[in-house]
Design a protein that fits this description.
about 150 residues; mainly alpha; Arc Repressor Mutant, subunit A; 3-stranded antiparallel β-sheet; about 65% helix; HTH_MarR-typ; MarR/SlyA-like; MarR family winged helix-turn-helix transcriptional regulator; WH_DNA-bd_sf
Length: about 150
Amino acid sequence: MTKRSEELPNEVAINAWARLHRTSSTALERVEDRLKKSGHPPLSWYDVLLELRRAKGQGLRLIEIEKRTLLAQYNASRLVDRIVAAGYAEKRKAQEDGRGVLVYLTSAGGNLLDEMWPTYQTAIQEDFADRLTERDIETLFKILAKLLPD
């Protein structure tokens, strides 16, 4: 059951909203800290490389990377340029229109993704899954699905 949009959020809703943001920020900071300590680039690199892998060799336009990773356009462009400069991805002209650019994962990028995953996986397990019951996780998933539909 959802509330009507004319109603203002009550104190519990406001506190829950704030806690959701603090929890998300803290969780991401913990992942970032683990990646940094293990000598890896930031999580945003992982996110871009993962989306390039999911493209299965088809390449992605910058706008697709932005949408899939929720990065702002100016951030995505700079980030992709850094990833390309490091050799983890490459840019190629789009053959369909000749003007657009597609970004592709390189083998080095795939290797980096594979190297980063154990650190990221450990963070998810220790900082999230180990702190909740299976039922908690299922409930949280259902609640979040209401806020961010697929």
